[in-house]
Amino acid sequence: MAETDLERFVEAPGRDEKIKEVRKMIDAKGIEYLYLQFVSVTGKIMGKGIPADHWESVAKKGFQLVYGATVNLFTNRAGEYLGYGPEAAELIGIPEPETFMQLPWAPTIGRFYCTLFRNREEKENPGGYLTSDCRGNLRRMHDDFEKKHGRRLRIGTEPEMMWLKFDENGKPRDGYSKPYCYHIDQFESLRPVSMQVIRYARQMGLDMIQGDHEDAPGQLELNWMFDDVLRNADRLTTYRQICAQVARENGIFACFMTKPFMGVSASGCHHNMSLWRGGEDEFVKCGNNPDDLPGMAENYMYVRGGENTFMPDDDDPQMPGKEGLEAIGGVVHHLQALTAVGCSTVNSYRRLWDTGFWAPVFADWGFQNRTTGLRVSAPGRFEYRSVDSMVNPYLMGTTLLAAMDDGIDNQLDPGAPEERNIYAAIKAGKEVKKLPMSLGEALEFLKNSEVVRRGMPGEMYRLYDEYKQDEYARFMSTVTDWDKDTYMECLP
User: Fold this and answer.
1) Which residue(s) pair with 123 in the sheet?
2) Exposed e or buried b for every residue in 190-199, given b needs 16+ CB within 10 A?
3) Full DSSP string of 252-271
4) Mean pLDDT throughout 152-156?
5) What SS3 class is residue 442?
6) Strands 374-378 and 365-367
7) From CA 227, how far away is CA 238, in angstroms rounded?
8) How many CA atoms lie within 13 A of 231 on its CB side?
9) 293-303 burial, b if ≥16 CB within 10 A, otherwise e?
10) Which domains can be identified in the chain, with CATH numbers?
11) Whole-model pTM?
């Protein structure tokens, strides 16, 4: 009888059949090698590769890798490994057969997402779920949220990014197109790149719906259909991998950095969210042959139907229902702490400081109001705007669940929707909490928020804080070109 989390995971009903189904696909498609990937605390893809001949063995036993891989295996300013030292045990990564996907740009390579566990021989909680696995945390927290509230979180993300040229030294520089928002001519200039991204995305299960050229150099936004929060996070991660590959193929640079240029818009990643009761998974073709898919059918499933509990429940077509207001009340109440996750890098705050370029810095909400941190973008959904494209979507998902849970439990009131430009409202005397304007300030809000830290269970908060505190310290201890230009010739 299974006694550990790892054993229960490996021995789950129906898993052996899926392992066999993957083997059939590996053989039929000529797959020679497998990438076994997981997501670090910062959203970076980590993992191992194995020959496809060993699929059945690794599906049962998994692979081992140092715990520090969940923290990017980086060192701090003192040269010490972040999170875990070299004396720490090794994690166990178990691939999820339902996530198998043939890479469209490398047909002999297959890819899996993995769930991480503590080592089988650990003295404490052997074979337990590894809490530095942000993806595994999201799955478990989402299931717990559903058990408690009978609701599932659906999210649609709007990742902006920039396609850049290389200079003569091989460094990324100017955008590949001009900074003209919504101009079809600029959209067309990026067509060879964007269409390749879309082709790969559709092959990998992303139901692409729309896109446009944004208002920074080379800035493109491509969107896919919203879905369950975990699957959407997986798709955002996949999308980033696709963009990196297309950049390699075209000799240009795919930039997800929040603010590479001042004076033009940064790359945000708005999160459109709603809570649903019921619904069923449905297959979405995405341009593929259902009888000859390049991956397991689960990659092409999207949840459909059910009841959107954020929809208006009275005669006001704009006002969300009671549950929607409570959930968003939790987000508004904890927005300052959530900023440490949604704006996760030092550079993220360049976006907030460059006022006038659509980056909201106040913890308020309204209808179609782009000056507030959250807005009702359409009936039944809230758009969280103070998130950028460097976000770890798994951590964003778990911390949003924690904030919504608090909002529903305590019936938190988000206040009346602000219909004025927030700056005009403040000038008229409205008191509004401002978002933190540096990573250091945001981390302090996170430290003081017991609720948001619930979205970083076990070791996750310690690891994230340690990594980001070191990042902020590195920034504060660095002399920049601005320092030199401003102070070099100054006399006391």
Assistant:
1) none
2) beebbebbbb
3) -EEE--S-SSTTS---BEEE
4) 98
5) helix
6) parallel
7) 15
8) 21
9) bbbbebbbbbb
10) 5-130 (3.10.20.70), 142-476 (3.30.590.10)
11) 0.96
